[in-house]
Design a protein that fits this description.
Layout (H helix, E strand, L loop, with lengths): L2 H8 L11 H10 L7 E5 L5 H9 L4 E6 L2 H14 L5 E5 L11 E7 L8 H9 L2 E14 L5 H7 L9 H10 L2 E8 L2 H21 L3 H21 L3 E10 L3
Parallel strand pairs: 1-2, 1-4, 2-3, 4-5
Antiparallel strand pairs: 5-7, 6-7
Keywords: Methyltransferase, Transferase
Protein name: Class I SAM-dependent methyltransferase
GO biological process, one term: methylation
């Protein structure tokens, strides 16, 4: 089972695909205060939950979703059809850092998908390419709530500089030429809801589908749960920044 399929299955009951509640997703999108006829882009859109909600909140907006996951994009298309939004949503199965657009966007999202570009600074540079003057970016990124142990870094295959603290994350955005105009820091409840959903939904699918795929999915759920409960819980945080480019 490839990584994108595992992720698609695990996010079935939490399509927001980040430790963010539906109410806080609405708050972030509403705070963007998009103009009439807004153009929206999501780089790493997954099942499209952020884009679909944005199209509901801004009835005259149009959107493009970019992802490499075939299953996720199929789910996004199905949801758009069910919600009557298909005519305002275009989906593209290409890497986020390879997407080319003919016109700039009023809002560009990259929530929990900055790894598609490399480091946060690379993602912010990639987002900037698609923004119109005065446009906004909505970027979700991890940060260290407290310094990680050597053991946790080894478990995650990470290094101390992969993330900064919360203040350092805002500073990294500033150094990349962005001003933070609003933000949401995910709560422990949001993290727990996300992680229990991710691991539990994948576990249920595995038990309902015995065989090699089910075994692989169950192993992935167990590994993820152990890494969370015994590792990064209360160490790794998540912040979603609403950013506006500056003149540097």
């Amino acid at each position: 089972m490839h990584r994108q399929l595992i992720s698609h299955l695990a996010h079935a009951d939490h399509p927001i695909a980040s430790p963010v509640s539906a109410a806080n997703l609405d708050r972030l999108l509403t705070r963007a205060k998009l103009p009439a006829g807004a153009r929206i882009l999501d780089l790493g859109c997954g099942e499209g939950a952020w884009l679909l909600r944005a199209l509901e909140l801004y009835p005259d907006a149009t959107a493009d979703g970019v992802d490499i996951g075939q299953e996720a994009l199929a789910s996004a298309a199905e949801s758009a059809g069910r919600l009557g939004l298909s005519d305002r949503l275009r989906l593209h199965q290409v890497p986020a850092d390879s997407f080319e657009a003919t016109q700039p966007y009023d809002l560009v999202l990259c929530v929990g998908a900055t790894h598609a570009f490399g480091a946060l600074a690379d993602a912010l540079d990639g987002v900037r390419r698609h923004l119109r003057p005065g446009g906004l970016a909505l970027v979700g990124e991890g940060f260290w709530e407290r310094p990680p142990s050597k053991e946790l870094l080894e478990l995650l295959g990470s290094d101390p500089d992969e993330y900064a603290g919360l203040a350092g994350t805002v500073a990294r955005a500033r150094d990349a030429g962005y001003a933070t105009v609003y933000a949401h820091t995910s709560t422990r409840d949001e993290w727990d809801e996300y992680e229990w959903s991710w691991t539990g939904t994948l576990t249920r699918w595995a038990l309902d589908n015995p065989g090699p795929d089910g075994d692989e999915a169950l192993a992935a759920a167990d590994e993820h749960r152990d890494m969370w409960l015994d590792g990064y819980r209360d160490v790794l945080g998540f912040v979603t920044l609403l950013l506006r480019p500056t003149d540097r």
